[in-house]
From TrEMBL:
InterPro entries: SAM-dependent_MTases_sf, SAM_O-MeTrfase. Residues 1-19 form the signal peptide. GO terms for molecular function: catechol O-methyltransferase activity. Pfam families: Methyltransf_3 (PF01596). This is catechol O-methyltransferase. PANTHER family: CATECHOL O-METHYLTRANSFERASE (PTHR43836:SF3), CATECHOL O-METHYLTRANSFERASE 1-RELATED (PTHR43836). It is an enzyme of class 2 (transferase). Transmembrane segments: none annotated. GO terms for biological process: catecholamine catabolic process; developmental process; dopamine metabolic process; methylation.
């Protein structure tokens, strides 16, 4: 299907120019989505191959160092070392036992989180693309983590949230990291609320909050001052505490 679409791309502009602008706009949106998927898969394969070959297996810090070297010369979905340090500070301070990561990508953020979790801590990481989920899980194993410390859920964020209770049992989430599609931030936050998976002490980390899709959730948070408190921001990464400032 994708191959057929790509072969027809050179002819489509000629047809589209004869049509009205709504169809032309649709054409551009479809092209952007297809190219984004293709670029993402190439990025995942190349990143995985580099990390797998360059790092010292079994050492999480070596995996992170290899990631940091890679992103200096290659496009990557990694949050990078600067925002990584910001995330580290939150994880060290909160010492969460149950962490949900929405948007695993190649596993960089997952490695940063896992290496700082308490011995009884668990990471549930969600990745909608099966290839990315598979490669990301391999990176976590290469970094020296065991399957008992994490679980990769290869599905949409909405599907994962609907099944979280079966993974958590009586526990609630201590930390939620959102780094998937910013347009899903608000729907997923509302779903977490409906499923009663957040406590008054839960912490949310939102990446790429400068993107248009994330503005909706930021506007929502301003209407809930007693339910959420923005604690700090670093670049386009935001830390949010469930509950008002008087509760912590």
């Amino acid at each position: 299907m994708v191959s057929l679409f790509l072969l027809s791309l050179p002819l489509l502009p000629v047809i589209i120019t004869l049509c009205r602008s709504p169809l032309r706009a649709l054409y551009h949106r479809v092209c952007e989505r297809v190219l984004k998927v293709l670029r993402g898969k190439v990025c995942v394969r190349r990143t995985h191959a580099y990390i797998f070959c360059e790092c010292t297996h079994g050492q999480a810090e070596s995996v992170l160092a290899s990631f940091d070297l890679y992103i200096k010369t290659h496009a990557s979905f990694s949050i990078g070392p600067e925002k990584g340090v910001f995330l580290d500070e939150v994880v060290r301070r909160e010492a969460p036992l149950r962490v949900l990561e929405l948007g695993m990508h190649c596993g960089y953020t997952s490695v940063r989180i896992l290496r700082l979790l308490p011995t009884s801590g668990t990471l549930l990481t969600v990745e909608v693309d099966p290839l990315t989920a598979e490669k990301g899980e391999e990176i976590l194993l290469v970094a020296g983590f065991k399957n008992s410390q994490f679980q990769v859920l290869p599905c949409s964020s909405a599907e994962a949230i609907s099944r979280l209770a079966s993974h958590l049992g009586e526990d609630l989430l201590d930390l939620v990291v959102m780094d998937h599609d910013p347009e899903q931030y608000l729907p997923d936050l509302l779903a977490l609320q409906r499923e009663n998976l957040l406590s008054k002490r839960s912490v949310l980390i939102l990446n790429r909050v400068a993107e248009a899709g994330a503005r909706v959730v930021l506007e929502y948070l301003t209407t809930k001052p007693h339910d959420y408190t923005v604690r700090q921001r670093f670049k386009d990464m935001l830390e949010i505490r469930c509950g008002n400032s008087e509760s912590f």
